[in-house]
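README, section 4: Worked example with a bound small molecule

Sections 1 through 3 covered apo chains. Here we extend the same pipeline to holo records, where the ligand is supplied as SMILES alongside the sequence. The molecule in this example is magnesium ion. Nothing else about the input changes; the structure line simply encodes the ligand pose together with the chain.
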Amino acid sequence: MARSTKQVGLSLGADICWPIAYESLFEALTRDGLKIGKNTYDFALERVTIEPFSLHQPVKYDVVIDRLTHWYSTSREWIKKAILMDDLYVYNNPWSLQSNEKHTSYAAMLRLGLPVPETWMLPPKAYDPSDDLEATLIKYARMFSLDEIGDKIGYPFFMKPYHGGGWKGVTKIDNAQELHRAYDASGTEIMNLQAAVLPHDFFVRNVGLGPQVRHVNYDPGAPLHDRYRQDINFLDEVDQQTLKDMTLTINAFFGWDFNSCEALRQNGNWHPIDFANACPDSQVTSLHYHFPWLIKANLRWSLFCAATDRAMRKNMDWPPFYKIADSDRSPREKLTEYAKIAHKRFETEKFRRFCKNQLKDLDELAYDFFGSEKLHDAIRQKVEALFPHHEHDEFTQLFWDRIQLWREQEGKFGDKDGF
Ligand SMILES: Nc1ncnc2c1ncn2[C@@H]1O[C@H](COP(=O)(O)OP(=O)(O)OP(=O)(O)O)[C@@H](O)[C@H]1O
Ligand SMILES: [Mg+2]
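The generated complex, written as structure tokens:
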């Protein structure tokens, strides 16, 4: 009978609310340790600090939940070192995050046969000075006609940066004049032009965390606090399965434990349009009703990774996906096969058993926590950081009420079958 301690670290930026919820439930859930077979594990949790480090400096963490890698290079290099030298498990794979931008994700999923809309990339309108710039452009940059490209794609379409997020630099283009205007204004940013999936009857944001997927009905036209709609059971089984398979395929392909995949439904087909979001919004002010799901999913997956010494997949290993892509199966059959790889890589059945056997108390603890003063205070802290003073009471109440609705509609029934 061995007893040892697993260390979990949170690598955080401006996050306020979700770490408070995560930490509170983590502590309650692991207070007496978790017994797995002959071993008992205690769990320690702390926030990772930013400091100088030697390559030889050992890393004590077993698992790090990282929210900084996509923009803070020091932490990213520390994490990559820790994976290489200390067998750290981190979500998400930092090499994949660093190198696979939106545009690469479009290419990969198109290759696997998913209906990604027609997408073009343009050379930038302007450049920062660099030594070889002029010689390169004079020799190789071909003049091109924006009008011709616009006609080929067909209006309307979207101009959007080939990487990044937060709607930065995204413009809907309805005609050639707007195309010229948007391109002239795009500066040094490298842009994609992507055929619009319009009209569509559904816009769904699918949040994946390990093998867990939540479908959120999304309204991009609403103010930030209403974009994630509170609907549940708005998709039939077939659509749910398609979106789940699609999300898990994308996440397994890129080694992303935590990512969100946006898909639009047109004529019964789901078109993924934005699925390189490997640091998904986790704030209570955006997720509100869905916030408890995210916290629970995050706890389950991180504890599973820590308790079972889940090995970090350092390389992407794409050939098994390509083998299926090149088979003569139908697109839907291929998706089912990709999802099987995803389930294997995410160890879905082992994870389900772990949740059922080791995390039995989570439902009840979460139900209580999401009705607690501590949660109310965490919401208030986040609201105070984002909203003007005169709106603090109103929005704290709004998000609190939505979470209470979750407790009534979902929380008190718990998660069937493990997760
Ligand atoms: N091909 C498309 N068809 C229809 N709408 C689109 C398309 N591409 C982008 N949009 C619209 O533009 C919005 C922003 O585009 P996109 O999601 O690609 O950018 P983003 O900066 O990553 O946004 P976010 O951070 O919210 O995910 C989408 O939420 C959607 O409303
Ligand atoms: Mg998006």
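What to look for in the output: The first strand starts at residue 2 and ends at 11. Residues 262, 274 surround magnesium ion (ligand 2) (CB under 6 Å).

Section 5 describes how to batch many such records.
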